[in-house]
């Protein structure tokens, strides 16, 4: 809201343009003296007073309190839905440019809700592009604008920031952020399905990478049980966008806003396809752990196809590590090796656990070919990637593999050193240093996707993020 003097001048100008006296404007709710005091800038009008005066003057509360024509904010929201549609269909770079333009205009106009939405969009674009530092900065800035909003409104920002920390190897902090947000939603009776699917799918990966398989499976079960409540009506979203354009062109701003709100909600749901793909990813991982390789391959291919359709290159490459392990165990080594190539360019700030998993698998395949030198090189690279990730189970397993390799090649002391290092990282299966698991969603019976323990399958270092 502008300063009282500016609002007073605006009221006086609009009253004069409409040929109203102060008495005609004031009655029946206020007095001419109040209007005179307001127009002179000596009193700050209440929201109720401004809404009354806006109705009498034939304008909107927003225009009267800020001087901005109402269509400006609506036009920004329309451009936000365009950016959301672009991101939902997979073109992150084009969407980022649209979000940047909206952010600049929202800052200039002082429209904080639109600034927050633009920042969330830029964060999602940066995540898909693998720019974790930029993603974190955008999500943190969005959280500041959403600080006073209810928990469901903050879920996207929290989830985005947690995923960025996860991909940077900060597993426990990612869990902390997500579990805190889940508990805040459920404890407050605000069990919004869309927000919970976002949070539960994001927490699957750090749970799995730290060995908390029971928690990971429960998160996937809960997300899949909630999924039917989150629809995917792309055609309806497009209809709402076009209807909003029509309303806006004919000056029906309030109706355009209502259509845009529906379209924005749908486009956020469309982006949940990435999160649902992560659930298929987790189901494939569970099947692989339990030795059901055919089912694992089917689920992982479903996840990969959904992610590839979203052009989520980083996630697509990561799920291919799990698929490559399944293919190797099915005796399809060359096909597995082809899948792993996309991970080898990922460094320690871009999916270190999955890149390490790729090197681990390549090491195993090199050993199977009898190429111990290549195997050792891949194992060492995997260890270097995992050292700062907190994935203790993966580190212990790699130390065992490296120790076995040293022992078979006659390097006993080196083998002992590797085994000792591995023992230092070993943790009991299914445990972490985390506190109690998040409370369940009241009244929800999660869909069962498989067992929660470690099966005969090999741990390749990665799971849905």
From TrEMBL:
It comes from the Bacteria. One of its GO terms (molecular function) is DNA binding. Pfam families: HTH_31, TPR_12, TPR_16. Residues 11-64 form the HTH cro/C1-type domain. InterPro entries: Cro/C1-type_HTH (IPR001387), Lambda_DNA-bd_dom_sf (IPR010982), TPR-like_helical_dom_sf (IPR011990), TPR_rpt (IPR019734). This is Transcriptional regulator. It comes from Streptomyces globosus.
């Amino acid at each position: 809201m502008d300063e009282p003097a500016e609002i007073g001048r605006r009221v006086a100008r609009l009253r004069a343009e409409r040929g109203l006296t102060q008495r005609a404007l004031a009655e029946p709710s206020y007095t001419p003296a109040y209007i005179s005091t307001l127009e002179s800038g000596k009193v700050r009008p209440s929201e109720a007073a401004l809404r009354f005066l806006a109705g009498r003057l034939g304008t909107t509360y927003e225009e009267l309190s800020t001087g901005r024509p109402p269509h400006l904010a609506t036009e920004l929201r329309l451009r936000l839905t365009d950016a959301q549609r672009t991101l939902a269909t997979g073109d992150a770079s084009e969407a980022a440019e649209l979000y940047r333009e909206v952010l600049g205009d929202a800052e200039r106009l002082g429209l904080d809700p639109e600034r927050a939405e633009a920042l969330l969009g830029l964060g999602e674009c940066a995540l898909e592009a693998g720019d974790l530092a930029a993603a974190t900065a955008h999500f943190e800035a969005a959280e500041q604008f959403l600080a006073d909003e209810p928990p469901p409104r903050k879920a996207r920002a929290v989830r985005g920031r947690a995923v960025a920390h996860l991909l940077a190897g900060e597993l426990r902090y990612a869990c902390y952020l997500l579990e805190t947000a889940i508990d805040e939603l459920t404890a407050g009776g605000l069990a919004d399905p869309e927000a919970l699917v976002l949070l539960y799918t994001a927490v699957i990966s750090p749970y799995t990478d730290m060995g908390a398989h029971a928690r990971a499976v429960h998160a996937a079960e809960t997300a899949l049980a909630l999924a039917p409540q989150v629809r995917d009506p792309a055609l309806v979203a497009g209809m709402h966008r076009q209807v909003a354009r029509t309303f806006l062109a004919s000056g029906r701003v309030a109706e355009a806003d209502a259509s845009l709100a529906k379209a924005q909600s749908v486009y956020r749901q469309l982006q949940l396809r990435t999160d649902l793909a992560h659930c298929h990813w987790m189901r494939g991982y569970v099947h692989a752990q339990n030795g059901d390789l055919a089912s694992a391959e089917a689920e992982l291919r479903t996840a990969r196809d959904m992610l590839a359709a979203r052009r989520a290159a980083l996630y697509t490459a990561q799920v291919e590590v799990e698929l490559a392990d399944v293919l190797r165990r099915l005796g399809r080594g060359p096909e597995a090796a082809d899948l792993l190539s996309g991970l080898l360019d990922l460094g320690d700030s871009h999916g270190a656990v999955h890149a390490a998993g790729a090197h681990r698998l390549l090491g195993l395949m090199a050993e199977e070919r009898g190429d111990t030198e290549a195997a050792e090189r891949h194992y060492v690279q995997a260890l270097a990637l995992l050292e700062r990730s907190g994935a203790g189970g993966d580190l212990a397993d790699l130390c065992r593999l490296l120790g076995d390799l040293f022992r078979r090649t006659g390097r006993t002391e080196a083998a002992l050193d590797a085994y000792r290092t591995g023992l230092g990282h070993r943790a009991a299966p299914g445990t972490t240093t985390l506190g109690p698991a998040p409370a369940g969603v009241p009244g929800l019976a999660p869909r069962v996707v498989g067992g929660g323990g470690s099966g005969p399958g090999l741990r390749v270092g990665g799971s849905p993020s």
